[in-house]
Amino acid sequence: MPKMTLKKIASELEVSISTVSKALKDSHEIGEETRKKIQAFAALYNYKPNNIALSLKNQRAHTIGIIIPEIVHHFFTTVIQGVEQEANARGYNVVIGLSDESFAKEVHNMDTLANGSIDGFIISVAKETLLKKDYHHLRETMNQGMPIVIFDRDLPDIDTDKVVVDDVRGARTAVSYLVDQGCKRIGIITTNDHVNVGKLRYMGYQKALNDAQFTEDPKLILKLDDDMDSVSRSEDLGAAISNYLEDNSDLDAIFAVNEIFAIAAMNAVKQSGKQVPEDVKVVGFTDGLLSKYAQPPLATVSQHGHEMGKRAAQLLINRIENDDPDDAYQTLVVQTELIPRASAAK
Amino acid sequence: MPKMTLKKIASELEVSISTVSKALKDSHEIGEETRKKIQAFAALYNYKPNNIALSLKNQRAHTIGIIIPEIVHHFFTTVIQGVEQEANARGYNVVIGLSDESFAKEVHNMDTLANGSIDGFIISVAKETLLKKDYHHLRETMNQGMPIVIFDRDLPDIDTDKVVVDDVRGARTAVSYLVDQGCKRIGIITTNDHVNVGKLRYMGYQKALNDAQFTEDPKLILKLDDDMDSVSRSEDLGAAISNYLEDNSDLDAIFAVNEIFAIAAMNAVKQSGKQVPEDVKVVGFTDGLLSKYAQPPLATVSQHGHEMGKRAAQLLINRIENDDPDDAYQTLVVQTELIPRASAAK
DNA sequence: AAGACCTACGAAAACGTTTGCGTGTTGATA
DNA sequence: TATCAACACGCAAACGTTTTCGTAGGTCTT
């Protein structure tokens, strides 16, 4: 049987549409007999109210959009999971948009979604957007009255709700841990400066060195292209790190700003004939599968993506539901957690 | 400025709604002067037609739903990526539903989406659904006229479009490869029988042994709970495999039906003092990050999730757009590919 | 017996859009 | 000058809901 509507039920049962609507809501306005009859009929034909019509009427789609740079990425999937869980619990659906780290795709995605299809956005902007510093699409969307929650990659220029990682603190804790393990020559493998999380984690590294009264040695700092973490460039990555290791034979620890860099570093160290953690200790960032199943397991900084997603969804839905303009924007900082594993053991 | 509508533009410019609508579509019915004026005004205020209203009118949401058991899972994310790419190219959005391998959540997800919000489903059913063999939600949805494409986990009882992996063939190729590498005692680590992909891959294993005229040895077959691939059970997993290795000291190769089992097997082999691939060769299934960055890199069977997603989306959108009931259902078999890597080298 | 009051239902507007059709005005033609 | 296109625009229905309001008919009160 094709889809049922109030109208079809009404004509079938020879009553008016409003009678059907009310009966299905158990309104006392409708007599018991009619009510039961309508309910039975609706149940029989598996009637479900049309969501689109409801969205149009209520001016609310009960749907939130999440835009992320990449989906084949452990951290982002945990965030989605958190968002979906919270959203579902509160009666919202989730639609995804992938920017592929491209500014144009990000803009396009927002454009096609911000037409009533969704009630608000959760977004982590593309690297290209970070580079261009062009946020007009975010501003325009917000001006139309659509709330946005930014997560992970912070945009200081944009004033809205945010859920961010304490990258500086996480990195600082990780590097301090290496200091505590007795490491003296601690290197860092990070990204170009325009990727703000890389920059922040680098700052954490500097702070930790400072805390330990170590002087920063430029030789120990390896800055890589931000696309080096893609599978297609894994050979370049390995080569770059191997070179770096050759230049720093006295290095006894590495802090990497992401999981891929960390694993690649571990592999390169092993290939150079040294041992992890005996000769070189390694700590990464992002607690994904790679870290857990690495040999030795990789000590790392967990960002609690699931928690971030959940919080972001809470912030967004709260804002959607009490549309109070005086409600000040919040920035939630989700604390990181150092997961000590064998790769950085004494 | 809050969101613009045709009505607001119309009242602002003192013309009728239909005039505005037509002007924005460059209709020749509207005089040049009025047309330009309306277009300029609309552009200035960043007018975008309301998607919900369009969906209601056109009885088409231009949105497809994808329901998967888990999102923190490399294979499924590659599928999503493929779906999203194809969908976007054809003007569709993608909403996700996560079943968490739970039957109830799967049903609930379908119910809340199948109300007009989406035009069709792409789904890989939960393990619990496989176990219960209760497909009423799929049947009901299809009866309402909503097309469904099933992927990965096939449901022979359900007649609809499908995109599946050639699990038997993939496994057979993998195991034959091990035979070619000179292995004589090839073990398999698989799941319980109700997970059909596990079962199919086991069948492929049997066929390959048969091809090589090896006799199957029950001792070499390790069947594990299907939730053993979750991080929370990684210790159980390691222990189970270590036991298995002890019982099979003469084993010289392992075929694992998923990536986690394969990595765990490699780790267990190494811990037992043996070497991969010299003493024991390992081949997995699913070409995820773990395989690529493992040490040694893990030979594996790629399922081409991206391709599967793309095909599934094509099938679905074609069916949505030419709603031809005589159009026979198709089952697309996406061929697997053996990726030979160091873990299975001679 | 006449007014007041329930009870049980229907009409209609609204959400924002598209589109077939109707219509008033203009200019040209016969 | 009467007729007729062509032009430029407006009306209204439709998609499926919800909800406010209106109103028949019946029951109760005095």
From the 3D coordinates, which CATH architecture of the largest domain in chain A would you assign? 3-Layer(aba) Sandwich
What gross morphology of chain A would you assign? elongated
Radius of gyration of chain A: 26 Å
Number of helices of chain A: 14
Tally of strands of chain A: 12
Topology order of chain A in helix (H) and strand (E) letters: HHHHEHEHEHHEEHEHEHEHEHEHEE
Give the N-terminus to C-terminus distance of chain A in angstroms: 68 Å
Find the structural class of chain A using helix and strand composition: alpha/beta
**Sheet with most strands: strand arrangement of chain A:** 2-1-3-4-5-11
Under CATH at level 1, the class of the largest domain in chain A stands as Alpha Beta
Largest sheet of chain A: 6 strands, parallel
Oligomer: homodimer
- In which range does the helix fraction of chain A lie? 40-55%
CATH superfamily of the largest domain in chain A: Response regulator
Spans of chain A of at least 5 consecutive residues whose pLDDT stays below 50 are none
Tell me the layout of helices and strands.
The structure is a homodimer of 346-residue chains.
Chain A lengths: L5 H8 L3 H8 L7 H13 L6 H8 L4 E6 L5 H16 L3 E6 L4 H11 L6 E4 L3 H6 L3 H8 L4 E4 L9 E5 L1 H14 L5 E6 L4 H16 L9 E4 L9 H14 L5 E4 L2 H13 L9 E5 L3 H5 L5 E4 L2 H17 L9 E4 L2 E3 L7
Parallel strand pairs in A: 1-2, 1-3, 3-4, 4-5, 5-11, 6-7, 6-8, 8-9, 9-10
Antiparallel strand pairs in A: 10-12
Helix pairs in contact in A: 1-2, 2-3, 5-14, 9-10, 11-12
The structure holds a DNA duplex (30 and 30 nucleotides).
Summarize the structure.
2 copies of one chain form a homodimer. With 346 residues, chain A is an alpha/beta fold.
